[in-house]
Amino acid sequence: MSQDPLVIFTPSGKRGRFPVGTPVLTAARQLGVDLDSVCGGRGICSKCQVAPSYGDFAKHGVTVQHDALSDWNAVEERYDQKRGLKEGRRLGCQATIQGDVVIDVPPESQVHRQVVRKAASTRPIVMDPATRLYFVEVQEPDMHEPTGDLERLKRALKAQWDIPSLSTDFSTLTQLQSILRKGGWKITVALHKANNSSDHRLVAAWPGLHEGGIFGLAIDLGSTTIAAHLCDLVTGEVRASSGIMNPQIRFGEDLMSRVSYAMMNPGGAAEMTAAVRDALNTLASEIAAEAGIDPSLILEAVFVCNPVMHHLLLGIDPVELGQAPFALATSDAVDLAAPELGLSAIAPAARVHILPCIAGHVGADAAAVALAEETDTSDDLVLIVDVGTNAELLLGDKTRVLACSSPTGPAFEGAQISAGQRAAPGAIERVEIDPATKEPRFKVIGCDLWSDDPGFAEASAATGVTGICGSGIIEAVAEMRMAGLLDPSGLIGSPAQTGTPRCMPEGRTHAYLIHDATAEGGPRIAVTQGDIRAIQLAKSALYAGARLLMDEMGVETVDRVVLAGAFGAHISTKHAMVLGMIPDVALDKVTGAGNAAGHGARIALCNAAKRAEIQDTVRRITKVETAIEPRFQEHFVAANAIPHATDPFPHLAAAVPLPDVSFNTGGGGEDTGRRRRRRA
Amino acid sequence: MSQDPLVIFTPSGKRGRFPVGTPVLTAARQLGVDLDSVCGGRGICSKCQVAPSYGDFAKHGVTVQHDALSDWNAVEERYDQKRGLKEGRRLGCQATIQGDVVIDVPPESQVHRQVVRKAASTRPIVMDPATRLYFVEVQEPDMHEPTGDLERLKRALKAQWDIPSLSTDFSTLTQLQSILRKGGWKITVALHKANNSSDHRLVAAWPGLHEGGIFGLAIDLGSTTIAAHLCDLVTGEVRASSGIMNPQIRFGEDLMSRVSYAMMNPGGAAEMTAAVRDALNTLASEIAAEAGIDPSLILEAVFVCNPVMHHLLLGIDPVELGQAPFALATSDAVDLAAPELGLSAIAPAARVHILPCIAGHVGADAAAVALAEETDTSDDLVLIVDVGTNAELLLGDKTRVLACSSPTGPAFEGAQISAGQRAAPGAIERVEIDPATKEPRFKVIGCDLWSDDPGFAEASAATGVTGICGSGIIEAVAEMRMAGLLDPSGLIGSPAQTGTPRCMPEGRTHAYLIHDATAEGGPRIAVTQGDIRAIQLAKSALYAGARLLMDEMGVETVDRVVLAGAFGAHISTKHAMVLGMIPDVALDKVTGAGNAAGHGARIALCNAAKRAEIQDTVRRITKVETAIEPRFQEHFVAANAIPHATDPFPHLAAAVPLPDVSFNTGGGGEDTGRRRRRRA
User: Is B332 within 8 Å of A150 when comparing Cβ atoms?
Assistant: First the structure.
């Protein structure tokens, strides 16, 4: 007696024997092969396309004949004529097994397909969305069996997709009867499955087979900007990315001024909540328009944000976040319906997931960074620094992860700097100072030329040179130190001490002139002693936070440093090291992670299991509170020098020679940096 | 070695031995004795009051000494001074066991206390509400352990009340931080537990011990009137009852005209939905004001209604209910949040439960009647008739329950009657006709005197005599038959045939004059031949429905008949029997159930387990669809005579002698009643 044919699926390598006549989709399901299907094997959705291989497969020990699968059938013929089927492809639900066969499941036919971004630094995302499409045929109503249309839909989902229980959003229920009749009792439903529950929620429905896709928003809700990716929830593809300013800026530039606004103004928190929700609706509409999709097809939104934005988004007064012990109203992940957040621009039944907060100062954005960087599975000890108005720091490896926030203040974002401005066209973002001539050159945002390149004046005419942004001031200070214009204590030398007239007296101190357009009525951009002090305070806070985590971990060095956020994407590693912002480490061990928080939001959007995983990770993270830790003060004070003076920095010293200068004349009232740090 | 003391609780009889020093509350909990506590044994809520008994208890085999419980302690002393403790009462959480003791749990200390209504006909309700109060002490936040306030509340509920999981309504979450701080980390929360789930939902919170009560609404949403009971969710007490007109009346008097309105007018269904939701908010505000409670303490609402009102309440277009196969959008019970129904007058986190519909014509109101009457546990075969614009009928006993609806039309409500009007002050509601003189007398709503009583004119001056309502026309027609003015075919005799000038010619037929105030510019109220025909159509439909259920059940008689609804409360059994509205049964076996639907709503409000029970019962009810059943037509035609002519009616014949008259002269075009019935 001959055996049943052997079926081998690639790339999984799963194999089994099936009776002649078994559909490929059935074989795949029984073996647990990851082969998609929306229509449940009716030959209409084409999601189950497979590519049979023929010939000798020595490594699998089979020879595949050309009649190993059933002939091309009428359903495939019709599908090919209507939509086109790629050469060599078959519909898995139509082709049946006739002999030993090797069947490849192409990536686009996998449910859990991997989505690889162009940027090599980010990890691929495995698709496993919370919201999926199901095509079902529902029994028609009958006077002898007067169950409701919804109950018959539930029965069909149970029978055809093994969905055990269904809850319903009422915006969808109100449409259900007309959709069922329009589709002739064939219907595609979008079901959202919550974590830790077998319950599915009906969030959208369409007559017949829905081919318009379903989408989700991954939103990084920052204090200054709100950035969103619009993702296809089936393919994972990013269909559009967009950002707008957070309109709460008018209530306060940084988080603590917003908390103060809420404390000082009755109804202030509600005002800020309304402002950010309005902005989110605008953003959702714009991004849908940009991608050319109907916003009612947006069925999910995932948010990452710092704790203050988290509370203001939810409509919770953030007052407790402004004072010790910085108690969060809720720290766990939050799942709710879009209308509860006033998100009216997307589907009324859309589900919202907000990542968990790590602590009162370490938000869901840091959780998203941990998710994107997989800190908790790292073999080497990694320090992740996400600099915004507060810096959020994660230090860990697979054994343990620590987190804290550091009150860097807004200097790294260009605020509290004499010529500072937000990163916008016209802002100086790169600075170089010639160590010999002490002359600067710079680049501004919006212009590709350096300021000493021929044609710069013309090329930068549109933007002008308007100020200096965060990355610009960091480079300027570091370059000043490297050019010997600044001593380790942070003092700017006099023209006599430095040999350049650009170090101009300003009151009892000096300022280094980068650009002077006052003759043409333009700005005068200089780095003042005050600017240096502001950067020193910020970088000391940042370094002290990192050092505190290292103490807690019991280490003196870290293996690598990841600079996350827009900040990480724009500042140069070398300059950050020269300033002493981060612990000493080999330069090639410092990498930028791009928008890791945004990438974490996208992971959580595309993969529901990761939501549970990060909630679990967050619970296990050890939170270190800088505000109550005396060692933080010590590290802060000790880190004031440029670079930090207390810890060894062999890697930096080897890479960048720093002039041994000292401009402290012993006199004068210049405060050498021992001001008290302040939060925000 | 002596044994631990024996503790016996009454009335349960539960007993056990406990070590000396065990608090009574602890002993009660371990034995599963139904002893309430909101504060969890902290001596502040006083819900656990018990009454120890002393002396010899031969039947229990114990002698209780006066030192069987610990001495009155400081907590009890303070409570007694502040609030007063009844003579002989102890706080179960404070008094500890010292020796053998018999402890009575008074009814008000039981969680599952029974609520008995004054009306003897309704069954007592056992309290087991879905929403309950819990007092907890929450751990204060701590910088070293930065969980959110909500997460610490969850932990406290788990530790102190064994609540395994908690979901949160966001309107409550936004208030949580200030409530916790205001109460010094002591808080009372209201948790709603959904059926078939261990999940509790946080729906309200108060600082410290909340003593203001929590409330629920049991709402009978009828086509014409909306009636509500405001119930205390702890005691079950009805604090206020109120009703208002359903404003949808302006879109159509009966259900089918409302369905037509929705079909003919784009947006018509939405308009009706908005109207009824507005009215519900008005009703909720009014009833709260009447009871003197804050409407934000209303945390639940339970609705019963017919299928069309059910759909319009939910915002579902009822168009499918207007045409075969009368498919419901959803037939199962519906649970949702108050804001989803636009119920803004009650707590924003209030939960709504809508009872299941039995079929497209047999609504959640019939389900509520089944719940109130416990049809499915009855030993004898009972027919329940709930007459509105459609009559809903249930027939069954503990073996099987059948249901159908009958298209009686609105004649029983006074519509389609020449002098008909709604039951309102001035409407004739009772009629008697002297068999000898053929003279009528009547009563109007709003006046206690009969029309032939001295002083009637003065007493009825305020209301006047404005028309005849449903119960009035039924009595009038039955009295006319009993007085020999009407023959079994439904023909009104001429003055010559009847011997009274009140049987006045009107066109080719006659009308019986009840009241003529035309001389004073008032109305002329007569029962016309057309009125008789309308009542015949309605009662034939009702009887045919009952007969169809009896066929389906395979019986020729029923044991008893229950008349539910306002109709049942107001018409006289005898007159209904004379008309042949219901199957023949001994007069004392016909009872009115009052507002059984409203009582069913109240049961479901006060007892969550009953919700699951009725859903289960409804699933098991056999639905009989009158519209497609040929036997319905046969019964309908055969039931046209007054009383119905096809079935024997020995009980009626024995109770009420009916004159053997016939006014059919054999000529003329008078249709003898074989008009086609119409729905609605």
Answer: yes
Alpha helices in A509-649 (DSSP H): 529-553, 565-570, 573-579, 596-606, 608-620, 630-638
For tokens 């680049």, the residue is A443
Beta strands at A131-137 and A238-245: parallel, antiparallel or unpaired: unpaired
Task: Report pLDDT digits (tens) over B187-232.
Answer: 999 999 987 778 899 999 999 999 999 999 999 998 888 999 999 9
Q: Are A545 and A403 in contact (CB under 8 A)?
A: no
Of B148, B319, B358, nearest to A332 by CB-CB distance is B148
Boundary (domain end) residue, out of B183, B207, B231: B207
Indicate if B338 and B442 belong to the same structural domain.
Answer: no
Task: Give the model confidence (pLDDT) of A12-24 as tens digits.
Answer: 889 999 999 999 9
* Domain annotation covers residue A269: yes
Q: Looking at CA atoms only, how far is residue A177 from chain B in angstroms?
A: 6
The three-point CA angle B350-A154-B320 to 5° equals 80
Mean pLDDT computed over B167-176: 91
- The answer to whether position B678 is within a domain reads no
Chain B residues lying within 8 Å of A170, measured CB to CB: 314-315, 336, 340
Query: Looking at CA atoms only, how far is residue B265 from chain A in angstroms?
Result: 16
- A671 within domain boundaries: no
C-alpha torsion sign, points B375, B376, B381, B385: positive
Distance, CA of A7 to chain centre: 41
Asked if residue B401 and residue B538 are part of one domain, the reply reads yes
Cα gap B338→B347, rounded to integer Å: 8
Q: Which of A165-174, B281-290, B416-425 has the lowest mean pLDDT?
A: B416-425
CB contact under 8 A, A143 and B176: no
Distance between CA atoms of residues B192 and B166, nearest Å? 10
Count CB atoms within 10 A of the CB of residue A615.
18
CA dihedral B275, B278, B284, B287 (to 10 degrees): -70
Q: Measure Cα distances from B575 to A100, B443, B536, B544 in Å.
A: 83, 16, 14, 18
Q: Find the residue in A nearest to B149 (Cα).
A: A329
Q: Are residues A158 and A271 in the same domain?
A: no
Q: Are strands A503-506 and A467-468 parallel, antiparallel or unpaired?
A: unpaired
User: A368 in contact with B at a CB cutoff of 8 Å?
Assistant: no
The chain-wide mean pLDDT, for chain B, equals 89
Chain B residues near residue A625 by CB distance under 8 angstroms: 143-144, 146
Cα(A532)–Cα(A419) distance, rounded to whole angstroms?
12
ipTM: 0.82
DSSP A22-57: -BHHHHHHHHT-----SSSSSSSS-TTEEEEE-EEE
- Answer whether B170's CB lies under 8 Å from A315's CB: yes
Contact, A498 vs A490, CB < 8 A? no
pTM equals 0.83
Query: What pLDDT, in 10s, does the model give residues B58-114?
Result: 888 888 888 899 999 988 998 888 888 888 899 999 999 999 999 999 888 888 777
Nearest-angstrom CA–CA distance, B118 and B410 = 32
Chain centroid, CA B336 distance in Å: 20
**In a shared domain, residues A244 and A260:** yes
Contact B198, B164 (CB under 8 A): yes
Contact B117, B111 (CB under 8 A): no
- Tokens 């008739």 correspond to B385
A274 closest CA partner among A248, A242, A304: A248
pLDDT of residue A310: 96
